[in-house]
Design a protein that fits this description.
- Helices cover 72% and strands 0% of the residues.
- The protein is elongated and about 100 Å long.
- The protein has six helices and no strands.
- The structure holds zinc ion.
């Protein structure tokens, strides 16, 4: 890699320490890299918003609606959340598995016969309800 290609990495502090040191030596000999670095640093400085005084920030927050969340104390239990979730999940899986294994077994013929009889009955009720409704109008 051409040392001149590392100027951006250097400017953003992304070079490992060893390469940083060797790039500094390169900077001393390379006017182009020095100029580029100066430009990038000026850009970075322009991008950083000037920090407002802490007192002013506090005063603004005090007069606006932002408040410390009431559920802040929940954060103290954060390390427990994972455990609770895992426990809930485990219980759910266990129960689900148990129900699958112990689900009642029906004879399909029996089920069909039951459904036929009851659906018929339900249809009869529905039909008489409908007839009654029609009679009212
Ligand atoms: Zn260079």
């Amino acid at each position: 890699m051409n040392p001149c290609d590392k100027v951006m990495l250097y400017a953003y502090g992304e070079l490992p320490e060893q390469e940083r040191n060797s790039f500094r030596q390169h900077l001393e000999q390379c006017a182009q890299c020095r100029a580029e670095l100066k430009f990038m640093q000026a850009q970075q400085a322009a991008l950083l918003a000037p920090a407002a005084p802490a007192k002013l920030v506090d005063a603004v927050f005090a007069q606006t609606t932002r408040r410390a969340p009431a559920y802040k104390w929940l954060g103290a239990f954060k390390p427990l959340w994972g455990g609770v979730l895992t426990a809930v999940l485990a219980v759910g899986l266990f129960t689900g598995g148990w129900m699958l294994e112990h689900r009642p077994s029906y004879d399909s013929q029996e089920v069909i016969a039951y459904m036929a009889a009851n659906l018929d009955e339900e249809y009869q009720t529905f039909a008489s309800d409908l007839a009654q409704l029609e009679a009212e109008f």
